[in-house]
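Q: Structure for this?
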Amino acid sequence: MSDAAPQSSKIGNGRVIGAAGGAVGLSALAAALGTCCVAPWAVSLVGVAGAVALARLASLAPYLIGGAAVLLGVAFYFAYRPLPVCADGTCDTTTQRRLRRVAWAGACVVACVLAVDLLQYA
Amino acid sequence: MNSDLTRRSSLILAAGMAGTAALGSRSAYAATPAGFVTLDDNAEPLRSDFNRDVGHVRLLLLMDPVCPTCLMGLSNIDRDLLSKLPKNSSLRTYVVHEPVIGGTAKNIPGAAGLSHSPIRHYWNPTGSFGRLAAAAFDLHHDGKPVYAWDVWTIHGPEAVWTDAGPPKPRVLMHQLSALAGDARFSHLDSKKFASDAMAMLGSGANKAAT
């Protein structure tokens, strides 16, 4: 039991960091695809055919945003899930607080990236 | 024997070249030879070209040559319509390139490469054509005019460009967020655009293919 608890918390750490990181990545990709459609840099960077391909991929942006939301949900679940009760009070709560900060930081980054992307429609 | 073969080959080659020249001279419509033509603020020579082609179904496509969405629209229309038409199709296609998000004249050849069909490309360096078309096509949102770019129109054979401006098209589609809520115009659906154009081409009012 005492060996299982640290192992489980390590797996939880990885899931929170991985899910939060994945959410940030997906939202950044969604923002990049959304921006490309009105950005003049796409043609000079990837050529006409590349710009056409990016424009075609832009239709995936809502799905990427949905995926980012799901990953954030996973991150928050593992960051806030109840820890096993430790009768002797040896459970580490510091790590849990750190993970919650990671999840919130990921949520803030995702929100900022999407807000900046939405500015192009303002 | 060899001199007979050489003479026969030369005759065949000469006949082929003469035939090709004859076909070319019969067609009054051809892709813009220098790549594109620059419009003046009166939309010439587009207006003259448009009116010379009365009797033909005409596409008038407005875009910025570095706009990825516009480029995708042109590519899709080429895929679904232009590439499927015979070489001597009576359809006339005009593309007006406007500097909306930073496109310049040197970007036009790249955009023109998306279609191998005969298209006349025009460059509007002042952007005045977008304002002219917006007024003529009645593009507005919340009482304000919406600049006409990323707009894809089909004009019937009867359409004439008068002093009042380009005629209202029979079909207008767009990829503009400002017109998203306007029930009069639909978002560009290249397959629907193609079927509308083909229906007009096959309606019998169109001039015969040249």
